[in-house]
Each structure stands twice: as C-alpha cells, then as structure tokens.
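Blinded run. Sample ID left blank on purpose so nobody reads anything into the name before looking at the predicted structure. Input follows.
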Amino acid sequence: MGNAIKTSGTAAALALALACAAGSRAEGTATPSLYAAFEAGQFVKYKYRQEDFRYAWRNRAYLDYSTHYAHSERFTVDMGLGAYLWYNSFPKERNEDVHNLDIKRVSLFISQGRGDYRFGDPEKPVAQLTLGMFTYKYNSDARNLGEYLYRSGAYPNFLLGDFDFAMTRLTGARISSGFIRGWSNDLMLTTETDIWPHFDWTLGWVTRWKPAEFIELGAGIAFTNIISADKDHTDPRSLKNMYIENLHSDSALLPGTDIKIEVVTGDTGYYTFRSTKLMGRAALNPQALFRAPWLGPDDLKLYAEVAVLGWKDYPRPTPTDTVQVNSFYSDRMQRMPIMFGFNLPVFGALDLLALEVEWYGLQGPDSYQRRKEEDVPVPQPVDLWIAKNGSYTDSDYRKDNWKWSVYARKELVPGCSIVAQAARDHVRHDFDSPVQLDREEALTKTGQWWWAAKIEFHQ
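Blinded prediction complete.
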C-alpha cells in the first residue's frame, strides 16, 4: 500500500480487465460484482519518526470490479481489478517544503486472480484446489486485531493492520478440505510478494473445528521462508545480523613470550528470516444455546486469538542495540500477541458493534524498517530517527503493550453500508517518498489513537 501507479502495474491491470471482458463472452456463466467506498479518518494523537503530533487527516476512495466465471460445476475463475485514491498521511510540518507530497495518488492493484477446482461431488467436494492470488481470512470474527498468522513478521517482529481489512492477500496454492462435518483444513504454499526477501515460499496449515454449535476452535502453523528464492538473501551472513553465544574466557600465551593474556571466545551465529509461527483461537456464541429475538445474530459472541511469532529463541543482538529493546529474541513471551473480542449487544440499532483488546509484550519498535531497507533480520534501534522535538526511549516501548479497537457496521439499504472504527492499533502512515518513509506503526503511547469511517456500495 502507498505506492503510486507504475507502468508495470497499469499494464497488468489492463490485461486483467481485458481478461474479465473476454471471460464474460466465453461459454459458461459470468457474474460481475462492483464495490466502491469513500473513507475519511483522522490520526488524533500519533507519532511520526518517533516524534509526537496531533491531528492528521486521512482520505481514501476505493473501486473494485470483479468477475466470477463458472466454466463448469467443478472449475471456476475469479478475477478482480481494484484502484484506490489516497494521500500521504505523515505530518505536513515534515514535508520539507515539497508541495508535491500533498497531491492525490491513485494506485492500481489486482484484488484477486484465482482458479478453483473441486474434487468429488461439486456440491460437497472432498477437497478444493485454489491457484493464484486470493484473499484469505481464517478468523471470521476478527474485525481489526488478530489474524496474526499471515499479518505479521518474525525476526524482527511486527504486526500489520488497516481499517476494515482484517485479512490478507496471498499468492500461491491452497488445498481446502471440509468433508468431515465440523472440521475443515487449509494447506497452503504461498510466495512472498510484499516484503524482503521476495519470492521465498511459506508453508502453512490452518484448521478449524466446531464440536458444537456454540463453540469454534482453530489453530495454525506457518513455516516462513522455508523455500528460498536465494538462500543468501534468506540467511544473510554479515556483521549486521551476527550474534555470539556461549561466551567464555580463557588464557593464552602471547606469541613469542611467556605472558598469559585473557581471551574471550564464543560461538558465532546469524539471525535468519526463516521462522515458525503458531496460532490458536476460540469463539463462543451463546445465541446458539438461546436465540433472543431482540439481539442481532452475532451479538454476545466472545472470541480470542493468540500467536507465537517465532518459536525459536536467539541470543540478544549485540553490540549497539539496547538489551531492553532486543530481549524479545530470547523471550518468547514478547513474541506472543493475545487478542480478545466481544460483540456488544446493540438490539438491532447496528448490524455489529465489536470491541477488541490486545496485549503484545514486545519491548521495542513494531517496525520492519531494517528488513525492508537493509535486508537484514534485525530490529529497528530506538534511536534510529533524530526527532526535532525529542526521540522515543526504551521506556516508551515498555509502556505500549495494550491496543484496543471499537468497530461498528450498519447496512442502510441493501447494497449500501456505513462502517466506523476508533482504535489504537497497528496502522501505519501512507507515503510514497523514500525520503519520508517510516515503517514503524503510528500509535505507540497510551493516549495515541485514530478514527475512520466510510460509506460503501456493493453490487
């Protein structure tokens, strides 16, 4: 997100649009769909490059055209072309007098490009194979926080999120199976197209089990970067990502003398982009036991999700970064976000009102700065930016463990809805200038938060 139109993106979008048009004329059944939305919001209190600011406006507009084409009962194709209008969201005081940074941007993207084949009975398939680019969401209850397995990174650790998009787009292959009643599974092999190291492959498995109508359980595991496009990129070996463990001192003779000197030795290792991420979740729906006519179908639902973003422990990085910031390499609890959600009763006034709270004990910047800019699996140091009004310190990152979100949705008429949210979450700034980049989340301190609202139309 946050990149202006590029020639290659425009060409791909045009090719996809032509494919959609051609598909509608081929044999079979083609069903088009259209989505449009206008969004406005404001960072009330926030930070940019570890400097505190107030009141930054954010505007966006979206348009998505998709076609579902059924070649047969077994084989279907979904293609989508999207565009969104946006502006840089970092503070105007830091524009460096470059007025072009205030103009509107329009970005094109492929919202989906997938083929699905069903094995066995098309009505109740034994399995389904999906190939291409597809949206993926395993936690249907999560509205903002959660969905950790594919919206996160490990070594260094970071969480991603944005307004009303608690899911991700994956590229690769997925085999889904749900022929056993109450139990379904997804096995996926996906390639990395968004962040360095590009084109590595991740193997993931997500399972869901519904033993009774009022309870749902889920779990997942992802072996990230398990297949390397270039092993030297996945497992770099440089002074930037080197660590030393098992330090011990010994004595040795100074060459050519009888003088003994103390020598400190240890084992050298290197941090890697490879990781093992784990996820577990649960949801309880009391209305499966009693149906209250004055409540909405999702009211009173309680849900939770927990993840381990990197199972393996590493020694703390040395020598320049502080112990407080980087102890998450050796402390698994600092790599475990935990989210709880509850759908508040709204008695029909809204379709949904969800409150979500998250605890994440990471004692350092939630940032992928060095992964993106320096291609190394090490965390962003606290003193990366020289802020004009005072940079952040270790203590600021030891007080940012709690996040929250309030999400509301209401359908006004069929095909038109209003969505609103207030949150202190993992949102980041929109920017298109490498000079102005900040890949750290925008809300860290307790009082920092933002809100957003949109009206959407769909057909």
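Unblinding after everyone has recorded impressions. Residues 7-25 form the longest helix (19 residues).
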